[in-house]
Each structure stands twice: as structure tokens, then as C-alpha cells.
Amino acid sequence: MSPVAAPVVPDPARISPLPGLLRQRLLVLDGAMGTMIQRYPLEEEDFRGERFADHPRPLRGNNDLLSLTRPDIIRAIHAEYFAAGADMVETNTFSGTTIAQADYALEHIVYELNYESARLAREVADEYSTPEQPRFVAGAIGPTNRTASLSPDVNRPGFRAVTFDELATAYLEQVRGLVDGGVDTLLIETIFDTLNAKAALFAVQQFFDEGGRQVPIMISGTITDASGRTLSGQTVEAFWNSIRHLPLLSVGLNCALGADQLKVYVRELARLADVSVSAYPNAGLPNAFGGYDESAQEFAALVEDYLKEGLLNVVGGCCGTTPQHIAELRRLADAYPTRGITQEANTEEALEDEEKAANASLTLAGLEPFNIKPDSLFVNIGERCNVTGSRAFARLIRSGDYEAALAVARAQAENGAQVLDVNMDEGMLDSEAAMTTFLHLIASEPDIARLPLMIDSSKWTVIEAGLKCVQGKSIVNSISLKEGPERFKHYARLVRQYGAAVVIMAFDEDGQADSYERRIEICQRSYDILTKEVGFPAEDIIFDPNILTVGTGIEEHRNYALDFIRAVKWIKENLPGCRTSGGVSNISFSYRGNDVVREAMHAAFLYHAIRAGLDMGIVNAGQLAVYDDVPKDLLELCEDVLLNRRPDATERLVDFAETVKQKGKVEVVADAWRSLPVAERLQHALVRGITDFIDQDTEEVRQQVARPLDVIEGPLMSGMNVVGDLFGAGKMFLPQVVKSARVMKKAVAYLQPFLEAEKQGNARQTAGKILLATVKGDVHDIGKNIVGVVLACNNFEIVDLGVMVPLERILDEAQLQGADIIGLSGLITPSLDEMVYVAREMEKRKLQVPLLIGGATTSRLHTAVKIAPAYSGSAVYVNDASRSVGVAASLLGSAKDAYTQTIKDEYAALREDHAGRQRDKSYLTIEAARANGFKADWETTPITKPSFLGTKVLDNYPLDELAQYIDWTPFFHTWELKGRYPRILEDANLGEAARKLFEDAQKMLAEVIANKSLTARAVVGFWPANTKDFDTIEIYEDDTRQQVRDEFFTLRQQSEKAPSVHNIAFSDYLAPKETGRQDYLGGFAVTAGLGIEKLIEQYEADHDDYSSIMIKAIADRLAEAFAERLHERVRREFWGYDPEEHLTGEELIKETYRGIRPAPGYPGCPDHTEKITLFKLLDAEKQTGIILTENLAMYPTAAVSGMYYAHPASNYFGLGKIGRDQVVDLAERKGMPLAELERWLMPNLNYDPQ
């Protein structure tokens, strides 16, 4: 570590006003640091500086390092934010931990990095501070790039890439640096995993306990999507319950969402929190290129709604926000009052308020909150995950059968347990390892992880191991005074530091309390120590006054149950705020093996204990008898024993128990639904996607009704209505809906002969007829097919014309079929123009049929600006299948006129706004843009000659090898399950559907590989090449470079850039002819879709839309994986410019390698016509079987093609809009009519060619 100056001592007068200021006025936080850094044209040298010039790893992108190597930039950014009106700036330390810096091999400078970043911000803050507006520095503590709650390996759900201890150690060093550097507060932010945040809070408390200077703590979580949950699955309230154990200056939300989307979650947090609330959203959602378009004024208008509702004490900006955004927030902050805080945060003083303590809730959390209020009903704590209390569970854990052990936990949850007790105390077990493994596995099961956990052990080391695995707020069971008061206080403080509630056993230095008097004496003493000496909140204390076994025949045991019940009543009356609990099965241990008697005893005991005030109990949630259902004679016998009502009570109960004939418990089999009435069986099959019995059930209904059509319009449509309702409510997901449609289609197929016999095949009433088509020249249909399935599930009749459908056929069929709606789909950019042509032709034919627009390249803006003006009828953009039903219903419903007018008004406003934006944008001439192009240092740039020139074909490429390169995230997006793989598999909302879909995909992929039912083929080529006249790439016949074989024509950005930011074309990455350097260009075309038509035909013949869509999605993933694998081989062997490259799968997906493979039709090179030249050079159609349609889509659709660039600085970019001067120039260079070229480039033109 390099030496740093002595710690900067923050001025106490500057820190102390913060809590008061937050109650007086809104404080404004700064905006994005990363966004501002991106405005500087930084190269690798800027990140290295002199000090790291010889560092072995690339450092570009390590923004935190700029505090050491370019402090002038960081200082300037802080100053800009203060000048804009910010009250507080964050230090440049978002990745300032040893964990995050390990990616750059810079762990050794972490303290210095944080210290210098804090010192820099402190200096600037002091320069801007005035008595009227003091300025503050928040020490930014990011989440790291690892998660403690989730496994990065879907095949090892129990694995963790980082441990709690590793996180806490890393955070502790960061905190030291920040506080020594002079921060006023610590801001633990962008929390996507609450366990990471709890490790940070643990480290902060440890720093304070070790004598570090105490500064206030701010917390800010991140809601990742519309599910309203963090990435690790918690709801807002569960998150708040999990992190409120330390005194906080504020709690809030930031990042991932824009102000519009984040508001509902901030509102919920403001309702819950008894501390200040902060929000610093992104500048909207990212655009297609990862940038943010929301202007300062638009951002402020959305945030103003927060302030009108009085939700905030701190307001700022995250990704995409700039000093302009913060200046707007300053204006608003001066005009609105701060949020009122009605309660104080938990403090020792507040805990002395007995009335408040008595009314406080015990707040727990798993993935979801669980709040136990003073008037809450009895809480069932599931007991079966206990190796001491369950021989079966112990056997599973000892044998390592954790899958079956999880089933025990799941059964407890399904049977009504509200908290799950986990105990691994067994002599032959490594209890700490078993606890850690089991809790890690529970975290991967959302249906179990939604519950809070009770970590149960007599060994502190096992309890602590469990606490380090749980992101929610759990219960520790238990600690006691048996080792004396000092040890008791030590454990209690640690429990609090880990953020858990605690069970206190009635146990002290003299042993276990077994009388009423000893019970209340120990509980009173424990309560006083905890609340008065430790500062433990009374509502987080749970007393277990020892449920001991009765009915043993031993005289001293006769009052055990009665004394427990009396002690519970005394605790509730004398120890305000705390809760009571106990292990209920202990009471009946004498009757082990006799479930009838035991269950009756438990029911009777709980009835009396709950009336006395028992709040919760550890029970077998699946075997709780109802008090009123216990036979009267047995109930009387049990109560005689429990309440010690007669001296012979035990003998009488023993005699009865011997007469009881145990009834075997019959397990409910999985097919119990087969005993339901047939209409309900059909509904169950539809909802669950079960085809096994569909023919026989359909036939059974047909025999019961007058006409076969009645089967469809009756139980089948009733079932599909349930499916539609569940899908609309977010309780079913697209893969499940497609499976439901498969069941429906099979049922209808079975009925078809009967329908035709009665000529009623078209007689049923539907919600409307919708004609769907992928437009001319486009062969992509997965999205269209999914929309068709979803609409069919909602009683719309679908006429699907397929792919590459000419506009004449679309409109002719629509008129012939009497279509109520026409739906157009397309994926490639030329399809956008084709849709405009369809709209114009509809106008010519004077049609008034509503037009639905969808597909990957379509957008609401394009529909409003280009399609809607061409058609006087309704043209409506639908962004995903789930919304298609609502839009179609609105277009055909009774209020359709009002709906269509609303859409037209919205689109008119969009057009006006778009026109205004275009007027406000500045563009360079093509000459000026070329002058501002990227200029490489061609004297020093390394150029490697490929290992061969010409082309090479790779036929029958092994599919099992490609499967290892699949990026599964887009696969889930195809099915409209939004989230990143593998995290989506553990998503609390989507996880179950995602896991089932993934399981089906893996099964089909394995079959494809085993049967070789798809063929993967590729061609790759390399050619001598140089740039000519800035934007043209010449391809030469050979390395003599005397004869030009062909030319590629690149497009250059023309929008005006910030100083030192270039207007790029891909040709900038090749050496110009005049440099004399011999450069090379590569190209490729791959497919994994050969043979897919036969599979699709088979599935569709079997009415199996699910498998048809699945095989297309898998083939697409294999093609993309082939492109990724081929590019890897290009870098390492075929071109060989990076032979030592060894990247992980995740690094490949993130494209951390050197070189790029842009494809014609994508954002940087939207000119599809360049594909013609590429295919000619590769002889791709002959070599691979891929053909180009008239609109230059590739068929099979599971295909990828593009160019290879090897320049070390090569990067992807978005072209944006271009001017007419460049288009005219390009038309001349290509020898193409201007109007034709404009058609191909229409979405990128900054002018209207008409």
C-alpha cells in the first residue's frame, strides 16, 4: 500500500446537522459518476497513469482508479454537481472493495483508493460549503460484482462465489479508507442482494466497535424489474425488515428503473420506514444502445410527483443523470417541503418507551415480509427440518440427500408453516457445514425461501454459520444466561449485528427453569439485560419458558404444562413488547409413536397456551389437529394431564393410548385430480399443461353434451378463461400458457371429426378473428406464433398466414376471411418499411380493420411516426404477447372508439415530440464527421496475418460443443420471461416457470444432440483489406494487393459529439491504404437450423405449438453459440491475434475479448445490402445452405453472419441518424439508386425522403 496522509477528521459540526437538516428541508444528492466519466475520451493510458504503466492487466473501465491516476477529472465532476446545487456528492468508490478490484489485480490499493477518493470529494465539498448551504460527502459502497445469496452455477445451487466473511472483510477495509478520508456519511447503495448489504452493515458496526469514528449510515436498495423485487428476490418490505437493525440516517431506492417505474416502490418504502427516505432513479430506462434519453426536464417532471406526495427527504439521480438533471432537482427541492418523519428510528432511548414497545411488531422476512403484531394470530413454526426431532430428516441429511430434505421443508411451507425452524445438531454431523449447505439450497427454492427462518442450535458456531447465509431477518434459537451475563450480552450483540430476532431460553447459570417461579425470574433478568444494557428492541425478543414433557409418571413433572402456561401469561403482562414461543412436541414426548394421542395433546395444549398469550410455537404444520375436532373423551383425558386436574390423569391417558388403533396415513398421490368431476379435470389439465388424459376426458364430456361444439364452448373455454385470467394476473407465464394451448389444440383436434360430421366446425362464438402474418422478405416467426397462441387462449380465432407474406395476400385474405384485426410481425429493419407499405395499401383499399404491429425491430415511436400517418384506421404497437389480449379486446370492445382515439392522440403527441427532438439535434456534414473519425496510431498498432486467406467450411459441427457456449438469457426473453440467466431461475416470481422451461429446453437440446436432428454448418473467410477514402473497405485478390476483388461500404455517425468524442465508422478499425500497413478483414456465416423444418412439421402435425416454438428458440441459441465459438477460434487459431486468450463463459457473454463481429442490419451497420457482398465472398449459400430472402433476411432463421475486425480498440456502436449528404455519397459509391438506398436505411435517416 502506498503511504497516505493522516486521516481527515470530519468536522463534528458538519456531521451533526445531517439528521436535523433532513427534517427541515430536502437534501439533493449528486447524479451519475459513470455517465460523467464517459463524456471524457479516456484511453487505457488515462487509467494507468505513470504509476500503473506496467501493470499486467488492462485497467480501462476501472473508474475508481481515476481518483489516483486522473484526480482532475473526478474533482471536476464533483465540482460540477456542487455547482448545480447538490448538497451531497458520492465518492468515486462504487467498486472500491478488494473483491471488485480483484478483476484488475489491484486489491492491494483498496484502502488508498477509498481514502484518496474521500479526500478529493472532501476538498471540493469544503470549497463549496457556506454557512447557509453546507456540503457533504457520502462514502459510496457498492454491492460488489458477486452475490452471497445466489449461486452463479445453475448446476450447483448450493455453491457461492463469495462468502459473508469475505464480503465483511472487504467492506471493512473500504469503510476504513472512506472514514479516514473524511466522509460525512456512509452510503451502502445499489443493493441487489440483501445479504451483501448485511455484510456491509456488519463491517460498519465492527469498525465502530473497534473504535472507528462513527458516521451516519444511509442505505439504498435496487428493485430490478416490474416484479417489485431485488435481484435476490426480496420485496420492498422484506428488504426493509432485513436491514433496519442498525440506526440509519436514511433508507431508499436507486438504479435499475427510471423515476416513473420506481415511484410505486418508493411510496411503499416511505409508508414503512421510520427514518428518512431517499430516491435517486435512472434517467428513464436504457435505450437500445444502453444509453439514457430522458432529459433533465422530463426527469424532473416525474420526480416532482414524488415531492408532491411528500415521499422524500433525499433526492438525486443515478445512471444517465448529469449536472443538468441535478440543477432541475435543486429547483424542485427549494420549492417543496421534506417528508415528515413521525417516528424515531430504533434507539436505546426509544426502547425505554414501554407503551411503544408493547405496540411494536416483530418484523421478520424471507423473500417476503412476515410481521407479527400484538394482535396477530398464533404463528406456526415448522419443526420437521430438525435432525434432533425427526429421524427421517436426520437420515436424509446424514446421507447427503439434500434434494429430499428440501422436499421436507417445502411440505412444511405448503402445510401452513409461517416460519421454518432448521436444526443440524447431531453428533455425527459437521453441523456448521450441514447448516450452511441446507440454507444455501433453501435460498434457491423461492417457494421455501419466501418464509423467514429460525436458525436453531445449541452451538453458537452453528448459529453464526446460519446467520451468514440468510438475507432476510431470521430468528436465532437460542441464547441464554447459562454461560453467565457477559457471554449472554456478547451473543446478543452479535445477533443484533447480524440483524436477527432472538429466542431466549429460560436457562441460567443454575440450569434450566422447571418451575413457574424460576421461569419468570430468568425471563425478567434476561429482559432487563437485553433492553437496558444491550439496547436490544423488546419486539425482537422471544421468550421460550421451556415446554417440558408431562405424562411421565414422575410427580415433579405434573405441573410442567401448567407452569409454562402461567409463565406465558406473566411474561405478556410484565415484559412489554416481547413474544413467547416453545417447542410444542416436547409436551407429548412420553407418547412418542402414538400420533393420535400426541396430536390431541398438542391441540389441547395450544388451545390453553394461546389463550394465555403464546405467540408462536414450533410445530409439525402438517399434523395440527383442530381443538374442536378432538373426540371429547380423548380431549378430557389430555386436559386432565396438561392442567394437572386429577392425580390419576397420567394413568388414565396411558390406558386410553394402549387401546388406540393407529390409522395409517394415506399420502395424497400426484394424480388425485383424476377423481375430480370431468369438467374440473379438463380445467386442471389446461392450467397445468397435461396432455396425458386429454382424449379420454374430452370424449367423456362429449358423451354428456348435445353437440361436440358444446365441449369447446363449455368446459374447454372455461378452462382457457382461467388460463387467461391467471396469465393476465401474472400468476402464469408464457411457457405455461403455450403448454395450455397445446392441450386445447389436442382436445379440438380430437373433436374435429365430430365437428365436421355436424358441419359445425366454424359455428362457435369467438372474441374475434385475427389474421397474423410475418411481412414479405422476413422469415422470423417465433414472436408471431407466441402472440397467436396467447390470443387463441383468450378465445380469439387465429388465421396465421406464416412468413414472407406479400401485402396483397395479407389484405386479400383479410377481406376474404372477414378478419376483425390484422397483425403484422417482422424482425429485420426492412420489415419496418414493408409494414408502412401495408398500411398505405390498406388506406388505398379504404379498409378500416385495426392494424397490430409487433416484432423485435418495431417500436411505439416507429408506429406513431411512420405507420399511423399512412393509415386513417387504427394502427397500434404491441410490445409483447401478454399485452396483445388487452389491446385486441379494446379494439373490438364496446368502447373501441374512445380507445382508438386515445391511441391516436398519444401517437400524435409522440410525433410532435419526436419532431421537436429532431429539430433540436445537431448533425455534422459527412466531411466534418470523417474529420472527427477515430484515428488509430497505425505505426504502433499490432496487425496479425490470419493463418489462412480465403475460406474454410466447418460442416456437421458438434452440437454438444456449441451447447457449452449458449447464452440462455435471450432464450428466456423469447418466452417473455425477463431476467438474466442463471439468476432468473431463482426469481421469486418467475423462477418456477423459468426452471420448468429450462428443464424442457435441456431435455429437447439433449434429444437434438443425441439424434443429430439439427445440423450446424459454417463458413469463415479472411481477405487482405485496407480502407480507402475514410469509409470504403477494399478487399484484395491476394496479398500483393494489386487487384481489388470487392468493396464494403461503411456508414459513419453524424450526430454532433462532445469534445474529443469521435464520429465512428467500422472502417476506422482498418489501416488506410496510405499508411502502407497490410491489414485484413474477416467474415463468417453460421447456421444451426438445417433440418429444423422436418421437426416443426412433426410438432405442428401433433398440434404442439410449445415444442414448435421451443425447437426454433433452441436452434436460434445454437446459432448464436456457434457464432460465439467460431469467433473464439478466430481469435485464438484461425486469425490467431490472441492465441493465449482463455475466458470463462460469463466473460465471453460480456465480450471482454479483443475484436468484434458486427453484422449487417445491426445498429452500427444497418445496411442489409452489405450482406450480398459478404455472402458472395464467402460463397455462403453454397457452403452453408443459408439463403437470403428478397429483403435479405437469412433462412433458416437460426443463422448469424458478419465481419471480423481485430483492432485492439475496435468496439460496437450505434450509428444513429445520418444526413442526406452521406446517403447521396453512399449511393454514388455503391452505384445504387438513391431512392432504393433510402428505403434500406429509412430508420436511420435524419430527414424525410418524401
UniProtKB/TrEMBL annotation:
Residue sites binding methylcob(III)alamin per the record: 713, 777-781, 825, 829, 881
Binding site for S-adenosyl-L-methionine: 967, 1157, 1212-1213
Protein name: Methionine synthase
Keywords: Amino-acid biosynthesis, Cobalamin, Cobalt, Metal-binding, Methionine biosynthesis, Methyltransferase, Repeat, S-adenosyl-L-methionine, Transferase, Zinc
GO biological process: homocysteine metabolic process; methylation; tetrahydrofolate metabolic process
Domain B12-binding N-terminal, chain residue ranges per copy: 669-763
Pfam families the record matches: B12-binding, B12-binding_2, Met_synt_B12, Pterin_bind, S-methyl_trans
Needed cofactors: methylcob(III)alamin; Zn(2+)
Domain B12-binding: 767-902
UniProt pathway: Amino-acid biosynthesis; L-methionine biosynthesis via de novo pathway; L-methionine from L-homocysteine (MetH route): step 1/1
SUPFAM superfamilies according to UniProt: Cobalamin (vitamin B12)-binding domain, Dihydropteroate synthetase-like, Homocysteine S-methyltransferase, Methionine synthase activation domain-like, Methionine synthase domain
Species assigned in the record: Hymenobacter setariae
Entry's Gene Ontology molecular function annotations: cobalamin binding; methionine synthase activity; zinc ion binding
Catalysis: reaction(s): (6S)-5-methyl-5,6,7,8-tetrahydrofolate + L-homocysteine = (6S)-5,6,7,8-tetrahydrofolate + L-methionine
Domain AdoMet activation, first and last residues per copy: 917-1250
Record flagged with keyword Nucleotidyltransferase: no
Domain Pterin-binding, first and last residues per copy: 378-639
Domain Hcy-binding: 15-333
Family listed: Belongs to the vitamin-B12 dependent methionine synthase family.
